[in-house]
Amino acid sequence: MTVELDAHGFPKTSGIFETIKTVHGKPIALGRHMRRALSSATELGIPMPGEEEIRIKLVQVLAENPYETGRLRICIYKNGFVITHHEYQENPNPARLTFYSQTVLGMQHKMFPYDFRFSILQIAQDEGFDDCILFNSQNYITESAVSNLLFMIKGEWVTPPITSGILPGVMRALAVEECGVKVRPIHISEVPDISSGFLLSSLRIAQHISHIGEMKLEMGEASRAIEAQIRASAQPVSVG
Fold first, then answer.
1. Following DSSP, what letter does each residue of 92-120 receive, concatenated?
2. CA-based diameter of the chain, in Å?
3. How far apart are the C-alpha atoms of 184 and 177, rounded to whole Å?
4. Inter-CA distances, 41 with 129, 146, 214, Å
5. CA separation (Å) from 239 to 87, 104, 106, 132?
6. Which pLDDT band, with edges at 50, 70 and 90, does 8 fall under?
């Protein structure tokens, strides 16, 4: 059955999704993504398709849409699931961030429709930035419109905790579990203490942040080292 998709490529209903980078048809951290999807589906009461059913469809979609670097998206909703694979263009440039002017409730689950987050991203881009930093009602930094955040503050790599109101991102988990990144609340008053930073997401992996507003961040040895660690932990795997 053909499912109608919206302008962003999501089914015209509601559900959960995972976006996964592929390299030569091999997804990065597929197991982690599917475990997160299963956890969300269970908590939200969305029927989860069988593992073999998903794997067969994955193999088919990847074979029919081969790309050197791709964006794999798995959307799961009440009446089924949709898997798409499109070419993904790497952005080699560092990101310029601004602050979003309003507090935003964090999402514990990767859910669609995703229009609100795309609208926040568009506001930042209309102002000449690549993305924006969000904060909660207590003025603690949470995430960007579409990515997790990683900052060097006073010599330590830190990322906000899930309790601040963030999506538990897969690349963020790799950074914490395998690269020595610390988890702690980050108040917006600490922004002047940020010396380096990255956007973490399944597509960007680790994208350097060059500016927060007019404040320029460093890209030194420590930044190159943590980026190399994160990318080394994000290896593509075959699905069969």
1. -SPEEEEE-SS-----SS-EE--HHHHHH
2. 55
3. 14
4. 34, 20, 41
5. 18, 36, 31, 34
6. very high
**Residue 11 DSSP code:** B
Instruction: Average the pLDDT over 58-78 and give the result.
Output: 97
pTM: 0.96
To which residue do tokens 């790799």 refer? 174
In this structure, what token pair is assigned to residue 220?
């030194």
Is the pLDDT score of 1 beyond 70?
Answer: no
Burial 55-66 (b: 16+ CB within 10 A, else e): eeebeebbeebe
Q: Tell me the residue type at 227.
A: E
Residue 152 host element (H or E):
strand 148-153
Listing DSSP states for 179-223 in one string gives S--EE---BGGGGGGEEEEEEEETTTEEEEEEEETTEEPP--HHH
Helix (H, G, I), strand (E, B) or coil at 62: helix
Mean pLDDT calculated for residue range 13-30:
97
Residue 145 amino acid letter: A
